[in-house]
Amino acid sequence: MALLFAVAVCLCATPMASSQEFPFRNTSLPFDERVKDLVGRLTLEEMVAQMSHGGANNNGPAPAIPELGINPYQWGTECISGDVDAGPATSFPESIGLAAAFDYQLLYTFARAVSNEVRAKNNNYTAHGDYSFHTGLSCWSPVINILRDPRWGRNQETYGEDPWLSGYLGRAYVTGLQGNNSRYVEANAGCKHFDVHGGPENIPVSRFSFNANVTTRDWRMTFLPQFRACIEAGAWSVMCSYNSINGVPACANKELLTDILRNEWGFKGYVVSDQGAIELVWLGHNYTTGYIDTASACVNAGVSLEAHWRSCGCWSNY
Ligand SMILES: *[C@@H]1O[C@H](CO)[C@@H](O)[C@H](O)[C@H]1NC(C)=O
Ligand SMILES: *[C@@H]1O[C@H](CO)[C@@H](O)[C@H](O)[C@H]1NC(C)=O
Ligand SMILES: *[C@@H]1O[C@H](CO)[C@@H](O)[C@H](O)[C@H]1NC(C)=O
Ligand SMILES: *[C@@H]1O[C@H](CO)[C@@H](O)[C@H](O)[C@H]1NC(C)=O
Ligand SMILES: *[C@@H]1O[C@H](CO)[C@@H](O)[C@H](O)[C@H]1NC(C)=O
Questions:
Q1: How many angstroms is it from 213 CA to the middle of ligand 4?
Q2: Keywords of this protein's UniProt record, alphabetized (predicted)?
Q3: Atom of ligand 2 nearest to the CA of 124
Q4: What is the C-alpha separation between 241 and 238, in angstroms, rounded?
């Protein structure tokens, strides 16, 4: 189901590149039918290629499928304080500063402006056949982790220490970024990093192998509510984090990605891994052994799309 949505996003985001009249191109048909038609035309290899290397450094974008007239798609875009790294773009204050205004409407208006720029730039980039990193419509933001430890290097990306406020401002960001067109999202928001993420990143116990032990009470009261709010606001994606939760890596964590996210909260979008987080399930956490074991553990837990970093074996240091 998640793959279906992922491909559907590509459809919305890519201009027609073929005159062929496949049913999946027929805008009079319901999305479900179009997606079913499209997925039925993909080979297994094409499905795998669409789910992996979802946009990062040398590895993105997801490849084109020329015989179906589908262009490449770049899944990795960063919109936390503007259309980051997408050429000249408006730069807004960092999240913790925006949150300090305690102003829902301000966050909403800011996110609308970012979204307009992301969409406009994407129109330009795709018109030029440019699918490089940070040119797409699928934003890896907002960051709604809880600011608990001042030593964490990314506290400035958060909305602070309060789960309720983080969820509230997350909702302003998500609804502003995605827009309110009844049919299309203007740019898609992604709630991250899911979950119990945000501690010191020192080596050797780095963020790539850290295991966060959390009680059910603390998990439910501190680390889940803001994600639930972000999803209830309509965010189409969630990024699973590098760390383990009670011994299970977030990206291989079925309780987190399926039982809570999809079954309990009714999430219908796609789960993308943090960059390199899939291979780190093996090479950082020693939770699995080998690429196939690792990939299948993550897909079976509920991951839809891999954001890859690099295949250089660098992770063995961690
Ligand atoms: C698109 O779907 C509609 C509704 O089923 C149908 O009437 C129409 O003929 C289709 N268009 C094409 C070009 O197949
Ligand atoms: C439009 O895209 C082209 C190709 O990537 C790029 O060189 C150019 O700077 C872009 N224009 C703007 C205004 O971003
Ligand atoms: C969408 O937002 C605009 C601007 O705030 C508003 O005028 C319009 O009524 C909204 N449309 C819907 C369908 O909510
Ligand atoms: C987390 O729990 C595991 C299993 O009980 C334990 O081995 C580990 O030391 C704990 N880690 C921390 C940082 O408390
Ligand atoms: C994973 O295994 C390697 C090699 O045995 C070891 O050096 C490393 O400490 C282990 N990592 C964790 C998080 O247990």
A1: 6
A2: Hydrolase, Signal
A3: 1
A4: 10
Q: Please tell me the total count of domains within the chain.
A: 1
Count CA within 13 A, CB hemisphere, residue 189. Answer: 30
User: What H or E segment, with its residue span, contains residue 165?
Assistant: helix 163-178
- 14 domain-assigned: yes
Asked if residue 281 lies in contact with residue 294, where contact means CB atoms within 8 angstroms, the answer is yes
- The pLDDT of residue 55 is 56
- For ligand 5, atom 10, the nearest C-alpha belongs to 286
User: Measured at the alpha carbon of residue 186, what is the angle toward residues 180 and 189, in degrees to the nearest 5?
Assistant: 90
Whether residue 307 lies inside any domain: the answer is no
Look up residue 288 and give its amino acid: T
**Residue 291 DSSP SS3:** helix
**Strand, coil or helix: what is 65?**
strand
**What residues form DSSP beta bridges with 82?**
80
The one-letter amino acid code at 271 reads V
Q: Cβ(29) to ligand 1 under 6 A?
A: yes
The confidence score (pLDDT) of residue 308 equals 78
Q: Quick one: the chain helix, strand, coil %, rounded to 5?
A: 45, 10, 45
Which backbone phi and psi does 246 adopt, to 5 degrees? Answer: 50, 45
Which residues lie closer than 8 Å to 148 by C-beta, 6 or more apart? 161, 198, 199
Question: 245 CA distance to ligand 4 centroid (A)?
Answer: 10
Q: Is residue 231 domain-resident?
A: yes
Q: Please list the active-site residues.
A: 274
308 belongs to a structural domain: no
Closest ligand, as measured to the CA of 128: 2
Mutate to test the pocket of ligand 2, among 124, 126, 130, 135 (most ligand atoms within 8 A of CB): 124
Q: Which domain holds residue 245?
A: 2-301
Q: What is the CATH number of the domain that holds 157?
A: 3.20.20.300
> What local confidence, expressed as pLDDT, does residue 203 receive?
59
List, run by run, the mean pLDDT of 10-residue segments along the chain (318 residues): 40 46 94 96 91 65 92 93 94 97 98 98 96 93 95 94 98 97 95 93 76 97 98 98 97 98 98 93 94 95 87 44
